[in-house]
Design goal:
The protein is mostly beta strands and 160 residues long. The chain has one domain: Metal Binding Protein, Guanine Nucleotide Exchange Factor, Chain A (Beta Complex). It is 8% helix and 29% strand. The strands form 2 sheets. The chain has a 7-stranded mixed beta sheet with strand order 6-7-8-9-4-3-10. Strands 1-2-5 form a 3-stranded antiparallel beta sheet, with no helix packed on it. β8 and β9 form a beta hairpin. The longest helix has 7 residues. The radius of gyration is 17 Å and the shape is globular. It starts with a strand and ends in a 21-residue tail after the last helix. It binds zinc ion (ZN). Zinc ion binds next to loops.
């Protein structure tokens, strides 16, 4: 059996990583610090645990969010990338090239959970192209987002 290798990185492609080996627990954290760090309702994180993490392009910048924890992000595009504590590193799940494969199994910080989070699955849902007012804008949209795989030429070919 081969050792699992997973890759990921930020939206602009300036920071890329690989993780070799089996990842630890995947979770979402509702605590107020994770909400701020991700600019989101909660933070999806997977523990690196015994896997080998390598920053293969660039490196995160860090904000020391407490005496014990620092938060890593891309200094160019701002994508949240990781959580580093004395007991280990967590990687943001959605920055993996294949986030579908990393399934959360537990929630933390539920005392700070925003009251409407549990109602989101009950909201009406529409496909992106269902918004007719945005159709002409979407038809001409050119993505500058890094593709979900490693590439030699990115971001040199990127338009800025
Ligand atoms: Zn970036």
């Amino acid at each position: 059996m081969t050792t699992p290798l997973q890759t990921g990185g930020c939206q602009c492609g300036a920071v890329r990583f690989s993780v070799e080996g089996t990842l630890g627990d995947a979770s979402v954290c509702h605590c107020r610090m994770c909400q701020k760090a991700f600019g989101n309702f909660y933070a999806p994180l997977v523990s690196v645990r015994d896997a080998k993490l390598v920053w293969t392009r660039g490196a995160p910048k860090y904000f020391q969010s407490s005496n014990f924890v620092k938060r890593g992000f891309c200094g160019d595009c701002g994508t949240p990338l990781c959580y580093e504590a004395p007991d280990g590193i967590g990687l943001a799940i959605a920055v993996f090239d294949d986030p579908e494969s990393i399934v959360p199994t537990i929630q933390w910080g539920v005392e700070a959970k925003l009251s409407y989070v549990d109602q989101i699955p009950d909201l009406p849902g529409e496909d992106t192209m269902a918004d007719q007012d945005a159709a002409s804008f979407l038809a001409h949209l050119v993505s500058y987002q890094h593709p979900d795989h490693d590439t030699e030429i990115w971001p040199l070919e990127r338009r800025t």
